[in-house]
Structure of Spore coat protein YutH:
Amino acid sequence: MSMSHILKMYYGIDVSLNEDGYFHYQNQLYYFCFVPDVGKFLDTYRYYRYLMHMCGIEGYSLVKNHNQDIVSQQHILLMYHSGTFAFSSYLQVFMQPLPYQKMKIRDIKEQWIHKIDCVREHVQDYAYSFKHDQDMISLIYYYCGIAENSINILNEILIIDQEASITLSLSLTYPVQNYVYEIVNPANYTISTRPRQIVNLLRSHFITYQNIQELLESQYYDVYEIIYLYARILYPSTFFDQFLKKQLSTQDIQNYYFHLEEERNMYKEMMDILSFYVTLPKISWINDNNMV
C-alpha cells in the first residue's frame, strides 16, 4: 500500500507525496513517514518535546488519525508549527547530555565493524552492477579504509579503559538540509551521542569549526568524548547507509568525489581543534596527496 493511500485512508488527506515526505495542505506544512521502530521513535519524540519546550518553540506535533491513533500502519504524520528559531538556543539545549544514560565504546566499535563487514560482503554485488564504473568501486574501498582508521581511533580509547563509555543525547541521525523545518523535525533524530550530533550539524552546514571550538570551551566533554568525536568525523556513516540500502546513484557518486577535498580539509581542521585538548593518534595519509 502506497504512502499516499495510507495518508488518504487514515487522515482523509488526498495529496501527492514527494520522496522526502513533506507536503502542504490547507496552508500548513506536514511530514509523513514510515517508522521502522515505533517504540524507539516515541522515546525520541518525548525527549524532543521536552527540549523544544526548553528552546521556547513548538516545532512539530503528532497528528492523530481517524481512529485517534498516532500510528497508522507504522506511519506517523507530523504537523509543523512555524515560529522564531534561535539556533544558539537550540545548540545549547540540544547538546545537553541525557542523565544517567551512557553507551560503551566497545559496543560502538562492534556496530561499526559489523557495518564495515556488511559493506565488504556486498561490494562484489555492486562491482557486478557497476562493472563499467570504477569510480564506484574505488569509492567503496576508499571509505572502508577511512572506516578502519576510525576503528583504530576507538581502539585508542579502549587501550586506556576497556569499559569506557560516553554520555547520550538527542542527535540527528544523519546530515539534513539547511532549513529550520528540517533541523526541528523529530523524525530526523535518534538517541545517540553528542559527537554524532556535532558531526551531523557540521556536515549539514549548520555549524562551523569556530562553533565547535566554542562548544568545547563552554560545555564539558571528557577525554573519551573528544577522541570519539574525531573517530566519528572519520566514520563514513552516511555513505555506508546509502550503499547498504542501495540508494547510491551515479550523481551521488559524483557528489562524493566532488567533496573529497572538502572532507580531507574537515579531517585536518578537526584534528587541529581536538589536538588542543587531547593527544590524537597521527594519521599520515590525511596530510598526503594519495587520496582517491
Q: What stands out?
A: Strands lie at 22-25, 28-34, 59-63, 75-81, 102-104, 165-172, 189-193. The chain has a mean pLDDT of 90.
